Amino acid sequence: MMMIQTFAEPMLPAALQDQLRPLLDDAFPGFFNGRIYVKQQPHFRIIMDDEGEVVGQVALDYRVIRVGAEVVQICFVIDLCVRKDRRRQGIGSKLLAEAETQARQAGVSFIVLMADLHDFYSRHGFLRIQSELTRWLAIEDRASHSLIEEDLADQLMAKPMTEIGWPKGPIDLLGYLP
Ligand SMILES: CC(C)(COP(=O)(O)OP(=O)(O)OC[C@H]1O[C@@H](n2cnc3c(N)ncnc32)[C@H](O)[C@@H]1OP(=O)(O)O)[C@@H](O)C(=O)NCCC(=O)NCCS
């Protein structure tokens, strides 16, 4: 039977971490280097388990960011992936839906993610963010190295959790880019 579980990142059992490593490495080759995070540890991890086997996961990073004159509370949805042999069975959608439920309960204004698969996320209510410069702290090889400013409109997507739309203006992530 499949089961969704959520862990605060520091509480993630070692046995689950061991299962996440190959899953993440397989889904995002060359990014994780044997770790379960790329740049920085997320706050929460949602895991789909089937009879003791991890078949999918997604991580959450809660923060405030600046958009123009506004400071907004967001939840970054990070590293959504499903084991190759279990894709196209709705697991990714279930993980995304659970991430949304939790972010909504936490009271954020938007869920935000970086996406290549725009159609998949559009179907789940995510909208492209209009072209604006985004500023973030670059981390390479687990060292801070600079502030980067780039237009991420081709990748950034957001889903509003309230009636209020994405504010206008440049984006400052007030930290690293997940
Ligand atoms: C993206 C991913 C999490 C989807 O998980 P999933 O369990 O297969 O998702 P679901 O079964 O809920 O939905 C599948 C839908 O997503 C879309 N989709 C999934 N992978 C796709 C791909 N590589 N290219 C285009 N569309 C894709 C399809 O439209 C598919 O719908 P269909 O089966 O009706 O055609 C999974 O493919 C994955 O782990 N990919 C590798 C990691 C990754 O790219 N993560 C996203 C980072 S932006």
Automatic annotation (TrEMBL):
GO MF term (any one): acyltransferase activity, transferring groups other than amino-acyl groups
Alphabetically ordered keywords of this record: Transferase
Residue ranges of every copy of the N-acetyltransferase domain listed in the record: 2-162
A UniProt-annotated Pfam family: Acetyltransf_1
PROSITE patterns: GNAT
InterPro entries, A to Z: Acyl_CoA_acyltransferase, GNAT_dom
SUPFAM superfamilies, sorted: Acyl-CoA N-acyltransferases (Nat)
Record's protein name: GNAT family N-acetyltransferase
